Every structure is written in C-alpha cells, then in structure tokens.
Fold:
Amino acid sequence: TRSGVPEAVLAEGKTPTEVADLIATGLETTGRAIATRLTPDHREAVHDHLDESHPGATIEDDQRARTLVARAPDFESPNLDATVGVVTAGTSDAIPAGEATTLLEEMGASVERIDDIGVASLARMLDQLGVLREQDVLIVAAGREGALPTVIAGLVDVPVIGLPVSTGYGHGGEGEAALSGMVQSCTALSVVNVDAGFTAGAQAGLIARQLDDARES
Amino acid sequence: TRSGVPEAVLAEGKTPTEVADLIATGLETTGRAIATRLTPDHREAVHDHLDESHPGATIEDDQRARTLVARAPDFESPNLDATVGVVTAGTSDAIPAGEATTLLEEMGASVERIDDIGVASLARMLDQLGVLREQDVLIVAAGREGALPTVIAGLVDVPVIGLPVSTGYGHGGEGEAALSGMVQSCTALSVVNVDAGFTAGAQAGLIARQLDDARES
Amino acid sequence: TRSGVPEAVLAEGKTPTEVADLIATGLETTGRAIATRLTPDHREAVHDHLDESHPGATIEDDQRARTLVARAPDFESPNLDATVGVVTAGTSDAIPAGEATTLLEEMGASVERIDDIGVASLARMLDQLGVLREQDVLIVAAGREGALPTVIAGLVDVPVIGLPVSTGYGHGGEGEAALSGMVQSCTALSVVNVDAGFTAGAQAGLIARQLDDARES
Amino acid sequence: TRSGVPEAVLAEGKTPTEVADLIATGLETTGRAIATRLTPDHREAVHDHLDESHPGATIEDDQRARTLVARAPDFESPNLDATVGVVTAGTSDAIPAGEATTLLEEMGASVERIDDIGVASLARMLDQLGVLREQDVLIVAAGREGALPTVIAGLVDVPVIGLPVSTGYGHGGEGEAALSGMVQSCTALSVVNVDAGFTAGAQAGLIARQLDDARES
Amino acid sequence: TRSGVPEAVLAEGKTPTEVADLIATGLETTGRAIATRLTPDHREAVHDHLDESHPGATIEDDQRARTLVARAPDFESPNLDATVGVVTAGTSDAIPAGEATTLLEEMGASVERIDDIGVASLARMLDQLGVLREQDVLIVAAGREGALPTVIAGLVDVPVIGLPVSTGYGHGGEGEAALSGMVQSCTALSVVNVDAGFTAGAQAGLIARQLDDARES
Amino acid sequence: TRSGVPEAVLAEGKTPTEVADLIATGLETTGRAIATRLTPDHREAVHDHLDESHPGATIEDDQRARTLVARAPDFESPNLDATVGVVTAGTSDAIPAGEATTLLEEMGASVERIDDIGVASLARMLDQLGVLREQDVLIVAAGREGALPTVIAGLVDVPVIGLPVSTGYGHGGEGEAALSGMVQSCTALSVVNVDAGFTAGAQAGLIARQLDDARES
Amino acid sequence: TRSGVPEAVLAEGKTPTEVADLIATGLETTGRAIATRLTPDHREAVHDHLDESHPGATIEDDQRARTLVARAPDFESPNLDATVGVVTAGTSDAIPAGEATTLLEEMGASVERIDDIGVASLARMLDQLGVLREQDVLIVAAGREGALPTVIAGLVDVPVIGLPVSTGYGHGGEGEAALSGMVQSCTALSVVNVDAGFTAGAQAGLIARQLDDARES
Amino acid sequence: TRSGVPEAVLAEGKTPTEVADLIATGLETTGRAIATRLTPDHREAVHDHLDESHPGATIEDDQRARTLVARAPDFESPNLDATVGVVTAGTSDAIPAGEATTLLEEMGASVERIDDIGVASLARMLDQLGVLREQDVLIVAAGREGALPTVIAGLVDVPVIGLPVSTGYGHGGEGEAALSGMVQSCTALSVVNVDAGFTAGAQAGLIARQLDDARES
Ligand SMILES: Nc1ncnc2c1ncn2[C@@H]1O[C@H](COP(=O)(O)O)[C@@H](O)[C@H]1O
Ligand SMILES: Nc1ncnc2c1ncn2[C@@H]1O[C@H](COP(=O)(O)O)[C@@H](O)[C@H]1O
Ligand SMILES: Nc1ncnc2c1ncn2[C@@H]1O[C@H](COP(=O)(O)O)[C@@H](O)[C@H]1O
Ligand SMILES: Nc1ncnc2c1ncn2[C@@H]1O[C@H](COP(=O)(O)O)[C@@H](O)[C@H]1O
Ligand SMILES: [Mg+2]
Ligand SMILES: [Mg+2]
Ligand SMILES: [Mg+2]
Ligand SMILES: [Mg+2]
Ligand SMILES: [Mg+2]
Ligand SMILES: [Mg+2]
Ligand SMILES: [Mg+2]
Ligand SMILES: [Mg+2]
Structure:
C-alpha cells in the first residue's frame, strides 16, 4: 500500500470464520495474508478454509507469537539488506516481540532475536552488548517497569524503539508504567503503544527499507 | 557519547548562572554546547559569560525554538547524507519542532521544515505531499487532537515519528489527547513524549546517521 | 415523549425475558418498541414472546447493529424531509453506527451510510466528499485515534457529530483516545460518549426534525 | 472557509502585538476579525493598532465574554433566519456562553440569552420553559456537576448542546465532572470540550445555517 | 457494636459455604445475620445450612436487592421513630437502593421507597415532592450522570445522601461520573462510594437513631 | 431558601468589588450575608463598602477560616438545640473546618471544635473519645491519607461526615487520597468533596435542624 | 542470586504444565522452588509432575496463600536470627500476607502472624501492641482505605512496610485508595505495589538478613 | 516520639514567622528542631528569630537540600552504628536526597552520598558497585522514568528504598512514571511517595536503629 506497511488481520474480536475469510481474500488480492492475535480456534478455521480453497498456499504458524502468514505459491517475499534486533526482557514479552518479528520478516528485514535479558540480571544483558551494537535498529520489549529500553539506549548508538508490554498488576499495571517510563526515558527512545508489536515492527521495517535503499544505491 | 546523542542543557528549572556555567563547560570538553528551553534571562547570561570567557566562540540563537548552540572556533560540525522533514500542524508547534530541528542540525542531518499544514485545512497538506515523500524520515508535531501524523503516515512510506504538543485545554488538554491519539494511530507511527522535540530529533538523528553510514559504504 | 426522542430498551444487563416483556409493553403503549445491544438470546426471546402475544406485529432485526424494532400493524412511521449521513472509519464501527441508523430511521430521517473511509486511506474518503457535502447533518464514527470526524469537519460545512468507538487496546484504548481527540478537535465538532450511537442518532434526529419543520413551512 | 466556520484568534498564549497583527490581517483578508480570551492588554493593543492602521474599522468589545470583533466599513454581516438559545446555570458560565454568543452573532444567528437558571433553583428554570421550547437549538452551559443540560433536554424537544464549564474544585473539578456527566446524560445531548464556547457556537451556527437554508427554499 | 452499625456479610468474593457458615455464626452470636450481594448459589447454601442447623430461624430474602436476613426466633428487632426515604432514578438503581433499605429496616427505621423518578422525566419527580419533603432523611440513588440527588436537594430542606450507581458505559462510566457529579453538586449533599448502598443505609440509620433518641426524650 | 441552606458568596474568583456588592445585596435581601475563601483584599473591600453603605451592620471576620459574616442590626440568628463536633487532624485542616463551623453557627447549631487529634498520635484522639461520643453529629476533616474519620467512626455511634482536605503532594496529593480513602472506608462514613467545608457544614446543619425539630415536639 | 532474593515462579498467566516444568527446573538448579498465585490446576500439575520426576522432594502447599514450595531432600533451609511481624486488617488480606510469609520463611526469617486487627475495631489492634513492638520489622497488609499501617506506624518504632490489598469496589477500588493512602501517610511507611506480598516479603527478608548479620558479629 | 522518628517542620505553605516560631518551640521542647523545604525567606526569619531568642543555639543550613537544623547547646546527637547509602541519578534529585540525608544524620546514621550515577551512563554506576554493596541500606532517588533503583536492586543484596522525584514533563511527568515504575519493579524495592525524601530517610533511619541495636548486643 501507499503507507508502505502490509495489511494484517487483527483476529481479536473477530469470529474464526471472519478471520478465515479475510485471510483468503488477502491471499487472492496480494498473494499473502498476515494475521495477529489468533486463538487456536482462529488458527483451525484458517487451516480448514485454506486447505479447501487454496490447497497450494503455504501457511506459517507462530503459536508463541500468535501470528499466522499464508502465502500463494507464486508470492515473492521481499528481501531487505538490513537487520533489526528484537529484544525481550522476559518470557512474558514473547507475544508482542513475536508480532514484531513476523511483520519484519514479511517486510523482508533480517531479524535477530535477543531474549530474556531484563534488567533484573544486568550481566546477561551486558554479555549481549556486542550483538546489540551490530543491529541497524533495535526494538526492545519490556513489561512491568519497562526499564530495559532505557538501559540499552544508553549503551548503543543505534535507534531504539521501546515496546511496552501489558504485564504487571496493581498501580501502573497493564503496561501503563512501562509506557510512561519509556516516554519519560532520559535516553533517546521512540515508543509505540502497549503490546503494539505490530506497530513497532512496521516502524522498524520502514527504517530497514530506507537502509536497504541507501545500501543499494 | 556512547549513546550517539550529543549532550544538551535543559535550561528550564536552572538559574541563568547555572546554565551559563554548563554551556562554558560543554564548550571546553566537547567543543560545542547545546541548550534548550531558555528564557531571555538565560540567553543573556550565556552571552555575557561567553563574551568574557570564550570570546572566540560563535553563538547561534533560535529564539522561536528557545534553543542556543555555542561552538568553539575549531569545532568541526558533522555532516550526514540524510534529510529529515520536520513538520508542524500550526504555529503553536514551533517550539518542540524547533528543538528537534536544532538537535538534528547539530547531529549533521539536513532538515526540511514544512510548517502549518494541520488537518483543519487538508489542501495545504496535500500540496506538500511531494516534499513529504522525498524525506528520509519525518517528525510530525501536532497538538490538540494530534491527527496530523496519522494522516501523513497513511500517505507516505517513510518512517514517521509523532511529536505531541501541549496545546489544548479541558479534557485531554496539555497534549494528553495528542499522545494517546498517536499511540492509538491506525498507521505505523512511533511516538515521543509531549513536547519532547529533543527526543524526536535525537531518534531521527540516529536513523539519519545509520542512513549516512549505509550511503557511504 | 416530551423530550422528542423515542424510548428504547437497552438490552445489555437485562435478561431475555425482561427485554421481551419491555418490548411487548412498548408495543402496546406506543405502537412501536426499539431495543439496542441485543444478544442472540435476547433476540430469540423477543421473537418467541411476540409470536404468541402480538402475532400481527412486524419485527425488524439488524444483527450487525444489534438492534431490533417491533411495530404494531397500525403504527404510522414518521417521515422527515431531512437526510443524515452516517459515516464509519472501519468495520469495527458498525455497531454504534448501526444503532444511530436504526434510531434515525425510527425518527423518520433518511439515512445515507458511507462506510470504511478511515484516515489510513485518505483517497477513499476524498472520493466520498461530494456525498458527504450533500447531507444535512453527519454522524462520524471512529475508534482508536478517532481522527476521521476532524478531517471531515475541515472539508464540509454541515454540522458533524463525532461518535467515538471503543476499539483500540493499551493507553487511550476503549475509546478514550478517540473521545479526547474529538473534544480537542481543531474543527467544530460536537461529540457523544464512547459507543453512544443511540445518543448520536437522537441528537441528529432532533436536528432533522427541526429541518423538516423548516422545510414544511 | 470550506469548513463553514469563521476563523478566530485565540488570544490566550499570544502577545498583545501578535494578536493585534492577526486582527489587522484578518480585517484585510476577510473584512472581519474575531478574537477570544483577550486580556485587557490584548484589547488595548488591538485598539491602538487599528486606530492607526484601520481608522474606519468598527470594534465591538465584549469584556464579559472576553471577545472582540473588528469589521471593515464595508463588511456585510450575514443574517440567518434561525434562533439559538444560549443558557447559563450561573454567573461563572458567562465567559464560555459569551464566546458562543459572539460567534453565533457573527455567523448571523439570532441569539436569545437565558441566564442563571441553574438546577439549585429549579423554579427559575421552569419559568423559562416556554422560551426554551421556542428556540431552534439550545446551548446550555454549566459547571460543577453540570446537571442543567440534562434537566432541560428532558423537557424540550429541540437539540441541546452541552457546554461544560471549568468551575468547581477538588475531585471532578475544572469541568471534568460536568463533561463526564454530560456525556453520561440519560437524555439526548451532544457535548463540546470544557470551556469550548467557541466550538459550541460554531456547531450551533452550522445548524442555524442549515435551518436558514431550509426556510429560504 | 461500638460503631452503631450491625455487621453484615459481603457475599461477593466468598464461596457459598463460607457465607453460610458466617451467617450461622452471626445468628448464634447476635441473634441475627445480614448478608449482601448474594448470588442464587449463596442463597441456596444459606437455606440448606440453616434448615439443618437452625430450623427455628426465619430467613428473609430480597432477590431484587440481593440481600438476605436471618433471625433467631427470639431476636427482637429494633424500632425507631424516624423515616428514611429511599429514592431511585431508574430500575438499574434497585440493587444498591435495596441494600440501603434492608440495612435501614434492620436498624429499625421506617423506609419509604420512591422509585423511578429520574431527571429524564421531571414531572414524575415533581409529583413526589410532597412525599420527599415529609421524610426525615433521603437517600437518592442514581447512575449515569447522577443528577437526581442534586435536583432533589435543591427542592427539599431535609438532609440528602447521594448514592452513585455503577451504570453507564464509556467515559465516566461505572459510576465515576455520578460520584464526581455528586461531590461537585451545587447543593448540600453528602455522598457515599459507587454502589455503596450498605454505607448509605448505615449513615442514614445512624441519623434515624439520633432522631429517635431526640423524639423519645 | 427552599433548600434549607443559607446562600453564601464564594469569594474565590471574584473581584473585591464584586464580593462587597454581593455582601451588601445579601444584607438587604435576607438581613445577613456569608462569604467564604476571602483574601485580605476581599475583606478590606467589604469593610470599606459596608462602613459607608450599612453603618449599622455588624461584621464577623474569621481570618483563620477565611470566612466573613455580616448582619443587619435587626437580624435574628436562628438557634438549634443540637451540637455538631467539628474535628481536625492537624493545623492544615483549619480552613475547611472553619468554613463548616461558620456555616453551622449561622444555621444555629452549637459547634464543639476538637482540634489536632490526627492518627499519627492516637493517644490525643483517644483522650477526646468522651467528647466525641457526646456530639449529635461529627464532621471530621483530614488531609494526606485521611484516616482519621475512619478511625473515629469505628469508635462512636453518631453519624460521621468525612471532610477530605487538599494537603499532601505527589501521588494521591491535593486531597485525592483522602477522598478515595474516605469513600472506601470500612466504617459508615458519608463524605463531601475535597475542601468542601461549606457543604459539610450545610449537611450537618440540616441534620441538626431535624434534631432540633424532634426535640421541640 | 546476586540480588539476595530467591527466584519464584508467578503461576498467574502460565499453564499448569509450564509451572510444573519451571518448578522441576528450579528444584534441580537450586534445590528449591517457590511458586505464587497457583490455582488448584497448577497445584495438581506440580504434584503429578514431581511425584514422578522427583519422588524424594517434599512439597509444602499453602492453599490460603496460594503458594507452593518444593525442596530437594538435601536442601538446607537458611535460618536468620530476626523476626518479621506479618499483620492483616481482615480476611481478604490473607493471600498477599501469605505470599509474604512464605517468602520470608524461605529466606529464613521467623514470622509472627497477627491477623484481623483492622481499624474498624481499634481495641483488637491495641491489644496486640506489645507483640507488634517486639518485632524487628512489620509488614502491614490492608485493603479498602488502607489505614492500618498508618495507625500502627504511629504507635511503634520499628520499620513498617505497607502492603495495599486489592479489595474495595467503586472509586479508589482495586487497592488504589489503599496505595495512595499509604504513600500519603503522615507516618514513616515504605510501601510496595497493590497485592505485592512477594515484594514486601523480599524487602523485609533483606532487612532480616542484615539484622542476622549484625547479630552474628 | 513513640513512632521513633523526630518531628520536623514542613516549611512549604507556612509563613516565615510561623516556621521561625515552630523552630523555637521545637528547640525548647526537645533540644533540636528540623525543618524542610525552606525558602530563603523562611531561612532568614529563622536566623533572625533564633539570634535573638536562642543566641546559644547552633544552626545548620543545607541550602541545596532546603533543610535546616537548630540545636540547643546541650543537645546530644544520637550516634548509630549503621551506614545508609543515599544515591542520586542526577542533579535534579538533590533536594529529596538531601532531605533524606539530613533526617538520617539527625537520627544518628552515617550517610554515604553516591551522586549522579543515573542509568543513561551505566559505567559510572558500575564503578560504584563496590561502595553500594558495602552499605547497610540504600535510598535511591530518581526522576523521569526512575529506572535506577531497579537496576541497582538487581546488583546488590541490601534492602533498597526507591525515592521517586518529580522531574519530567508530559505524560507520566511530575514523578508519576517514576513512582509507578518503582512499584512495578521486577526487583525487591520498597517505595515512598514522590519527593518524600523525609519519609525515605525516616524509614532507613528506623532500619539503621534496628541494626545498631543488633550490633550493640
Ligand atoms: N496486533 C495488531 N496491532 C495493531 N494493529 C494491527 C494488529 N494486527 C493488525 N493490525 C492492523 O489493524 C488493521 C486491521 O483492522 P481490522 O480491519 O479490524 O482487521 C490493519 O490495517 C492492520 O494493519
Ligand atoms: N445504546 C444506548 N445507549 C444509550 N442510551 C440508550 C441506549 N439504548 C437505550 N437507551 C436509553 O436508555 C434508556 C433505557 O434505560 P433502561 O431503563 O435501563 O432500559 C432509555 O431511556 C433509552 O432512551
Ligand atoms: N466554600 C464554598 N464551597 C462550596 N460552595 C460554596 C462555598 N461558598 C459558597 N458556596 C455556594 O456556592 C454558591 C455561590 O456561588 P457564586 O454564585 O459563584 O457566589 C452559593 O450558592 C453557595 O451556597
Ligand atoms: N506474586 C508475585 N508478585 C511479584 N513478583 C513475583 C511474584 N511471584 C514471583 N514473582 C517474581 O516474578 C518473577 C517471575 O516472573 P516469570 O519469569 O514470569 O515467572 C520472578 O523473578 C519472581 O521473583
Ligand atoms: Mg506510512
Ligand atoms: Mg542510544
Ligand atoms: Mg430533549
Ligand atoms: Mg466543517
Ligand atoms: Mg460509627
Ligand atoms: Mg436541600
Ligand atoms: Mg537486590
Ligand atoms: Mg513508627
């Protein structure tokens, strides 16, 4: 599309049938369809539908990320010369980080996952500093107090996108503390909404495409 | 610094003497000093101090943006092969947009200012679409309902950083409606805090540096 | 009633039997009954009840809008010489927009639906500008950042009523960003509560009645 | 403009000189200029400027409403066949109600002011019921708990626009209780932001213009 | 107890067995037990338990109010020479109003229920003005915008306790608009928490006891 | 008035001249005028005005409470057979407690002040338990965490009205923690808005009047 | 670990299998595993898993506290010469207080439980004053208005950690009033998040370890 | 006092004369007086007053911390065998950290100040790790996103008290992001209110006194 970001179906709030239909339509119009936040029921309905209607399509299922990608046999995946690091503080950050990963891969970027390096155990993070500094862009997902993107952005000179995650209960729970901490960060972060892995991936993907353009010329 | 962003003095909440001293120290240690949110009193104190202590320094004053940059005679400004568009919806967005502009220029990026194209008069914005699409990155400042970054991001395929501005009174005033609208945007925006022009500039500057690197090689 | 707006039963929070009884009572006292936010269970209970108690009544079911209207055989529907445009940004806005539509039709206004013209794809909206400008009043439903009513109100000179919708997760989710953005709008909107399609319809219906009066005389 | 609402200068946050210049420009380009939220200093600067630059212009000053209108000698004021009732609960509602009045008069509507009929003394309000029911549209301003628009809308069948006012201290103060009460109203209100008299006037003015059109034809 | 208010079991969040046990204990220690917010399961468990353990006890069940009172055969109910009016705006206010009623009756006050006189139909309320003015104290329950206690308090000179109810969706929903409106009221209300019918009843009961004392002497 | 509460002028937000005029008018129409939240300038203006216009009037000035009462020579103060205890946790509660006291005295109740018995020094409070239990009604003012009304209500069986005070900074400051703590209280409190000493006094005054009536008969 | 606090598995949001696996891993790596917020399903899965994989392990189940501890046969529990008082206001505080107790015991502190001494019945609390003053540190759990830690901290000179509990409905419900009241407390409290019994226990455990160190030397 | 914490005068909101009087009274009753948040005017008034009334007293002025301590000639300062580390992230944390320092010193603890080690430059912090680990307790002050206490608590095994500071503008400003981040911390922090350096000092001082007791015996 004109906006540079592939369309995706947000399964949450839709029936399995609706999602399956939208995926089928996506396949037909653009050769590929992406969906996020699928339940097992959504997933099953998509498989059943496509098995019948589009037997040649390939389906890629990431159950951890709750995403699904279907591709027509002749769909040509883009390929960008740019690498995005997708970082998580802990296991609860897997869904939004996985959403970002799926979208980035569909936009053609190389993704380097660096998991479970939350600030509660700083040594693990410092061990990864070399890898972190090699990326073109970083997406850093963190829940609760959301300190990880701030700590990393103070140590690297690549752009960091903070991705707050809706973990945490009580005051500032549901990702609100993480979001407000990230916008207050004393380092140079930009931020997306709580759990908006899709948006973080899209933004990093647009930067990756600019870099790919620059490297080509 | 390691984080890739030049240090700057936030004058707000400091006395004129404190700001002048910090500027002088900055000049001596790094050859350049940047300050934001200066009042006329801050400004005067800096000029008085530097006239005496660093007569060779050049001072650049942007009264609209409320920023100031001092440079030692031998300071070599960086120069990046990348262009950032800094867009405002209206005149009230001038201060944060100016802060972003100053920082970007000090990081070496070319800045293209595109002013007063708020959604209340869509035609003016559509007229600038060509220019908007030519930029490597866009920072879009908007207050009140903050709709402009969303509308632009739907029309271009370069990364857009939303910069909410603290205009607006009543419910959702002080930039809160703009911030929450931007994180809710149905397009791919990343966002910084209300009035955080400095952070938006830093983030766009880091992207510009990556692009410059990519173009060089 | 004295307030000019037909009574309606809000099914949410009532048992199927309660809703069916209230519909039957409405039919008897005013010749017509309107209900909103029905589940399939509510719907079934109403049909079962009326089939027995009021076999002559006609029932109009809008499953998308989750509304239901029952009319006695001799009920005379009002007819106003005025047209209201009911606009949606996306498919998630269908329920409140449908509520508004049902109420407007029961008040006698002509309704023109203009769907799926959200700001993420501005071209689709600009295509409809002619139709939008022909309406007497516009109700514009939008969730997430809620920018659509602002963009439209800047392009037309008919009164626009903003209808925020409870889509969106995270910060500003549940329609709060949309509501605060609409009251902050830099154009001349009036606004109703999140998901209050009934209220938006009622307000537009009262304006339509004034116009009908004016045209008659 | 295309949006149907005359431009106005919001003096708040601008210097007296800036306001005077904007008024002068407005006079030249459209033959009339409107400003709101003027301090005495703004006012004086406008008079001084226009006395010199536009000696033929007439200036209308409403100190209670804090508005000012300047007109070129040959400006032709519009004249609409429609009446808007502007109602206040108490004396603290005078500024936003006055803003609405000024704008409506400049748009050409007849304005009927009905003041100080707050719910604490219901009898005074009931006395005015006849007048209230004669208006084409009502704007009802109220602060603190903001109950007046709800009470009136239950008694009349003309459209009512609720205008919350930033009176009240403590919990729900600054107009927040009034705004949330009005959007929660169990009657058919549409609402504008706290203190947004200008917006309420604009919206009512657009309705008045539709009625004038209807009456003409 | 020393605080003057009978103990009661809040069934919400307790298992049926726990509630039944607490009721039985209450019966034994004070001759009477009160419970609020019971589900049908709670209710059944209490009946089953008491049928066996306290066959002589009488059980009073108010399913509308979701309350239950058990009394030992020899329990002597208090009897106060004072009347409290318990008023509701609409049917959704029945549960908290019923809670207040149950508690008041157990404290010995006479209760006068005045139902469904919400501000949307002011005439019904004005019809009851005589009855309202005869009460010693009034509890006025209202949800959504919560205007009824304000309107009544302006018309009577007995003390009015506002009881906000958690109806209403969207902004200010869940009783928040009603609560903030009642504390902002331009009349002399005191207020209890959202849905806190028990507290309202206790407070009115303590006033009733003071009046009874005064009348006796 | 019909509402049973004497009118009062809220000086805050009014000019000294406006307040003086309103006091003079009050004197003439009802023989007495009450004002709250006066600055020294308001006070001076009232004295100057009345010295000239109403030389026979008596003026009572409570600078601690920031209230003022003016009475015509022939005004007959009411006298109720009922006592209200007005309690403060600390010195910062003096203004709202003083407002309540002034209003109660003007309504004719006897007021017993019990000061500085905040929960941080429980012994001082327990010493006053006898006095507290002798009152007909208690108003208990407290800022910060607002625990005092809860503690007292657990120890007495007279009705307690909680009066939250706007002391305290940071999270829950400005009286918000006190208000929410009082509505959450596990004892039977009714509550007024933050700093609403006037309202607390009015409510207690209406109860006092009921008691006086009961005692007379 | 370096942080001094034993790891624990937060069962909430994890499947029974995941929790059982994490417990087994914990057992193997550190000889002990702690889990919090288990449902009966989690509990069963852990027992089943360990019965098979670690038949020699002992499992301690606190169903009230919803915690579980598994220990390898050779695990040596620490033993600190320090006592922490864990206090509850009422029965609803049992879960977070139990979490704190479990963690403290696993860190080796002696725990003294002092239950059901909420402020509504001050006498019960005053009876325990001797015991309270003998502890080295106090954790005081309280929901609703959360006044208990404040009242206790005013009467003892040992450090008190406030633990707000998510009881209470309506305004300030879900523990928000308790948290804000505790941070506003006019005594010297430190505080943890709503329901964060684990954190309160960890903090008190670290203090206990310091005291044990001091006593040993 | 019984609570173990010395009384202190909060100068904010009091006149210079009031503060001077309270200091003089404190001196007389306990031999020492502490005041916080003094302006230069307060300071001057205290000096003037004591010079005259208590010429023998010594006054200690910490202008950075805005605190003042006056001691009678014969006052014996306590002396505890315990060290508290008071840590700041940046210069804006100086006032609350200084308040904590003053109170700790007056309670007799040794204070080690470790300044300007905020997370934006992690190396400076890691350099201080040895010193941090040597303290008995740590108070860690931080504004904006408030990440520093979390990062430190993950690296040390002494108890850490988080002290959020009211720096930062926009969303989550005024210390709200820091507070909510600290209560959400994935490490074991206890927390005090925004800017509550006095409370943090008091809490750490009580722990220090326990340690001193333990070491003595
Ligand atoms: N997880 C997600 N978060 C945010 N936006 C999404 C997500 N998944 C899909 N979308 C976007 O939301 C829109 C789908 O909305 P809908 O029409 O309701 O399916 C698409 O334009 C997607 O680009
Ligand atoms: N979807 C809706 N949103 C807002 N108000 C509604 C809705 N549906 C019905 N109503 C109004 O709410 C009232 C119904 O309330 P109830 O007595 O609870 O059925 C009626 O007076 C209707 O006019
Ligand atoms: N301190 C106060 N707090 C709340 N209401 C007050 C106060 N003082 C006066 N009032 C009431 O507010 C109204 C005065 O409003 P105004 O017309 O602005 O003077 C009167 O009806 C008084 O009953
Ligand atoms: N009830 C609890 N509240 C807060 N934190 C907890 C709780 N139980 C466990 N934890 C901590 O949360 C982390 C568990 O996170 P996870 O990796 O999601 O299991 C561990 O490091 C525990 O120290
Ligand atoms: Mg785009
Ligand atoms: Mg960096
Ligand atoms: Mg009406
Ligand atoms: Mg328009
Ligand atoms: Mg009591
Ligand atoms: Mg009254
Ligand atoms: Mg630690
Ligand atoms: Mg203590």
Remarks:
- Strands of chain G lie at 9-10, 32-36, 58-62, 67-71, 83-88, 110-114, 137-142, 160-164, 189-191.
